[in-house]
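Protocol step 4 of 6: structure prediction from sequence.
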Amino acid sequence: MTANPQDFFAPFVAACHLAAHHGLVRFSSGNLSWRLPDGRVAISARGSWLANLAADQIALCDLDSGAHLDGPAPSVETWMHLAVMRARTDANAVLHFQSPYATVLACGDPPEAGYAVIPEVPLYIGPPATVPYITPGTIDLANAVAAAFQDNAPEHNLVVMRNHGMMVIGNDFNEAIQRAGFFELACQVIVQAELPANRLTEEHIQALRAYLQK
C-alpha cells in the first residue's frame, strides 16, 4: 500500500461512485470488493453508501481466513465476497447490487425463457445462475453463491439471489459494473415489455460469438 491510502484506494472509491451513478445500488444497499495481489481483499464498510464512499470507509480482510485486518467493520456480506473470490480466481472485483428491475425479477420466478433479450447478455454476462432465498450475511448464503459461480456447465458470471439481489464478478471494476448494468437493462426490457419479450435463439447467440471472434 502507498503512504497515502486515498491514492491507493482511488480506483475502488471511483468504482463505488460509478455503480451508484448507474443506479445499481441505493443508500446502504450493495457492496463492492477488490482482490489485492498480496492476499488481502478490500471491501466497503458495513452500512456505507457506495454513492459517497470515502477511502476511510474501506476495510481490509484476509482472503483465506476472512480475518478483519484493518479499517472499519466490513460489510455483513464479506463472507460471500470472499467465498466467491476463492471459487473464481478471475474474480478480482465482486459487486453485490440491487438495481430496480433486476430486483423485481429476483423477487419472482426466474423468466422461463431466460434473460437473453439483448445481445449484451450472452456476450458480456452469459447465463445467470439463481440461488434460493437464504438469510443475508450467513455462511450458508456465501457457500451457495460461491457454488453457483463455480458451476462450469456453463460458467456463470452473475448470480441472482431470490428476494435479495444480484452478485456479479469481473476481472476488473469496469467489467463487473458493465455486466451489472447490461443485466439491469435486460431485466427492464423484460419487465416493461407489453407483450412477452422475444429472446435471442441459441443460433443467434452462436452466430454473434462467431462474428465477434473474427
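Step 5 (inspection) to follow. Strands lie at 31-35, 40-44, 58-62, 68-70, 93-97, 129-131, 158-161, 165-170.
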